[in-house]
Amino acid sequence: MNDDTDFFKDRLYKSKIEAFHFGCDKMRKLVDNDFAFYLENEKKKIREIQKIPRKIIRDFIKACNSSDESSILKNLDENITFEERKNWKTIFETEGLSKFREYLKSSEQQLCGKDFKIRSSWNFNLPNVTIGVKYFPKSSNSEDRPFQKYEQIQFVIENDKIIKVYYQI
Predict the structure, then answer these.
(1) What's this model's pTM, rounded to 2 decimal places?
(2) DSSP 4-69
(3) What pLDDT sits at residue 103?
């Protein structure tokens, strides 16, 4: 008879099912710890993958809030595509960095100076990243109590550069 096992040496069991349940109870802590370790490693991998796109997007929004053109253009690809959409229909579209720069200088631009706050829900489906933003519209009448507006911006990021921006009004 072989007594080399380190499992179930503590007592004799009356039935096979009792031994099985006792074995499951003994293994539960080990399995739970292993699974918690696995989940933590997966979270670390996801955070590492999302780290650079999050930084690029935060820098872009910060630059838009401060109307800093050079910082806005810093992480953009030369062939940037920008679309402004309302009710899922494109109302303005531009391609290329020079055309986007002209848009930023125009009076019709909708990105700069709104004091966007990035909402906590980020949707990652790389290379696509969709964020929600909120802001208080600037009112010309001081008695008007401004209400908060919510909008979405979708970015397509490749090689640590933004290649497409879809701004949903």
Answers:
(1) 0.80
(2) ---SS-S---SSHHHHHHHHHHHHHHHHHHHHHHHHHHHHHHHHHHHHHHHHHHHHHHHHHHHT-H
(3) 93
